[in-house]
Each structure stands twice: as structure tokens, then as C-alpha cells.
Design brief:
The chain is an alpha+beta fold. Helix content is 37%, strand content 28%. It is built from nine helices and 15 strands. The structure holds (3R)-3-hydroxy-3-methyl-5-(phosphonooxy)pentanoic acid.
Length: 337
Amino acid sequence: MTTSTAIAHSNLAFVKYWGKVDSTLNLPQNGSISMNLSSVTTTTTVEFNSTLEADEINIKDDEKTATKLRTQKHLDRIRSIAGVKMYARVSSENSFPMGVGIASSASGMAALTLAACSALELDLSLKELSILARQGSGSACRSILSGFVEWLPGNSSEESFAVQIAEPDHWNIVDIAVSVSKTEKTVSSSEGHKFVANSPFWDSRLGTIQKRLEIVRRSIIEKDFRTFGREVESEALSLHAIAFTSSYEKENTWYSGIYYWTPETLELLIAIQEWRKRGLELYFTLDAGPTVHILCENHSMTDVLNAITIIKGERDWNVYINHPAKGAYILTDNASK
Ligand code: PMV
């Protein structure tokens, strides 16, 4: 019987993964760049036990059958690498709500990958762990590595993994994630990936990615916040322009596009432009959800937080302050046989 607990941070993409070339292997249409987020984590314990007759999966606040099936499928991948048949007991908890634009699948699959591999005493490299985590959920491959990270898209499973651009302490930028809604989104990112080619602007987005990757990578290395922020904000709007125009059918209804935003999301985006006009240097990005991620340098953080407090008023918004964080790691490793 072998048990391990792993912690993984969620990550925020600056150049985003949107669309897959291969949805079984999670091979992305394009490369992406992200930063691990210090205050949003998943903690997962995996225990392989020969007395279990089935996997027992307990993910706090997520009873969905689809999540359990994804977890089991991922355990199967790891069991097959280790050559074991034992079932596992998995318990997992997030430090943040699910489905509101903070990628729980990234931290969740990264923590599950590391905890399960460690419990089975599989000695995998960061590259191998990243490849494995990617198969559970694409963006999870970036949460394995520390700090600022780039996912190289690759043409095969072995070529598609994340590498580090810089350590967390390289650049003290801040992501203030403002969660304006707790309602779970109606279109998951897995579904969103499938509909990208329905947007008439899809080819045009793909044509912008290579240059964006270069600009964002370079601006991180050179700590050029202005160039970085402008590129990242435009990139997020490019993803949402695709989402808004990705028509799809679901449960006998036709939709002209996916709206991950709520009215409060838009209210905040407009306010950010106004704050910038008043001299605050800040930019936004958004994942597949209504949460607005506000990016600033550490020295502007207090001013940005004050502006958020005023606009928030009495509303039930949650604010998460994130600094660049390390990659997935093992918390405890109790192996008793
Ligand atoms: O890993 P997934 O399938 O949850 O996709 C994540 C997609 C975005 O969060 C919108 C962008 C990204 O690169 O993380």
C-alpha cells in the first residue's frame, strides 16, 4: 500500500491554448505561455491499495461523473506505465471554486499525475510528468513546471510538453484574479476547444500566435511589462473573439457563440481601461470563464486593489492575489508496504 500527497498550482495562460489537433492526446493547435499562480492550488492524495475493488474518487465540491471518469482514465494511464493493476483511493481539494475561470483542471490533473506517480514510485522526469499531465488535461502540463512556462505544441505526444522560461522569482508581477460570478459556466473548455473551427476568424487567430509567443516570451525574459501587458490583453480578446463567434449546437438548440463573460466581467474590463487612462499600469486577461485576471507589477498592487475594492462595493466577488509560483511538488510521501 503506497500513498502520496501532491500540491499543484493552477496556471494562467498569457498566450492561450484554444483548439486541439488531437483531442484524445490533447495535442494543441498552438503553443502557449503561462505563469503558475501562488494562491490557487489543488491538493491531492492518492493511495494504491490491493484490497480495493474499484477506484474510490472523492473530489471536494465536484461530484460530476465526467470528472470521476477523467480521473479513472488518468489513473489507468499511470497504472499501465507502472505495470500495476491495483485500484486507488483519491481525495482532492481545491483552494478555490471550480468553473469560474480559474483552471481547476490544470492544477487538478498536475497534482493527480504527481501524487499517483509518486505513490507508485515511478521515477519520471519533469518532461515525462508534463507529457502525462497533458493527457489528463492540456493546460495541466504547464503546472508541473515552475514559474513562467511555455508549452511546446509538438507533432506527437512525446514532443508536446512544457518547459520553463524563468523561475518564479525572476519577475515580481501580480495576477489579481477577480471572480465576479460563482455560477458554473455552461460550455466547458473541453467543449470550447471543439468548436473553434466554427468561427470564421479561426485561421486569422492561428496566424497571430507565433509572433505573440515570441513577444510574450521575450518581454518576460526582459521584464518589459508594457510590451507584455499589451500583447497579453490583445491575446485574451482574440481567444474570446473566437469563442463569441464559435457557433455550436447543444441539446437541440443552436447557439451563435460562447459567452464566457457576465455583465460584471465587461463592467470590470471597461473600468480597467479607465484606470489605465488615469495612470495605473495594468492589463487584463481572461480564461474560459467570467473571472477577470488583472496583471500589474508589484509596486502598483495596492493602488489596483483599492480600485477593485471601490468598484466591487458590497458585491460578493472573490479576489485572489497571485504571485509567480513553483511547479507541482510532493507534500508527504508515506510508503508503507
Ligand atoms: O486545459 P483545458 O482543456 O482546460 O483548456 C484551457 C484553456 C484556457 O484556459 C482557456 C487557456 C489556457 O491556455 O489555459
